Hints:
It is globular and about 55 Å long. The chain contains nine helices and no strands. The protein folds into two domains: 8-76, Endonuclease III, domain 1, CATH 1.10.340; 86-173, Endonuclease Iii, domain 2, CATH 1.10.1670. The protein is mainly α.
Amino acid sequence: MFKKYKSAKDFASAKPKELEAIIRSTGFFRSKAKNIKGLGERIAREFGGKVPSTLEELITLPGVGRKTANVVLGHAFGIPGITVDTHFGRLSRRFGWSKEMDPVKVEFEVAGLIPEKEWTNLSQRMIWHGRRICHSQRPACGACPLAQLCPSYGIGEMDKVKALKRVKSDEDFR
Length: 174
Ligand code: SF4
């Protein structure tokens, strides 16, 4: 996609069907294509072709909520952000960091516990730990490197051999 479209203006003038074909494998491709085109239009028209660098501006863009905005802030601008997706929320509750179900409340609670400079890396670690080991259904506790620290140790598969079989590798997400 980025080989074909180089600027916000390119995305703004993209044909929806062509965008859809490129991102089809990612799922929800129609609404994503609509948002990508809308993003191009807004960024070209209102931000001089440059992605804005504040949370307040980012969340006004099509398809961008706090979660996406914090990813962009952390990885594109080096501004620490906490990305509360389904994994981050679940693990925060399992670690006893929060009892909240609302992602914004989880974000603020964890922000009060963890130094700001760690927020972006913490988000990545939480998300990958949730994907690989601490699954929503039957987490692989018996193969978990955090077992000795985790207050929820024991809620999942405890048999080491069975737990190891449940651990996902990076290849499973390619
Ligand atoms: S010990 Fe179990 S609940 Fe705790 S982080 Fe590891 S897999 Fe998740």
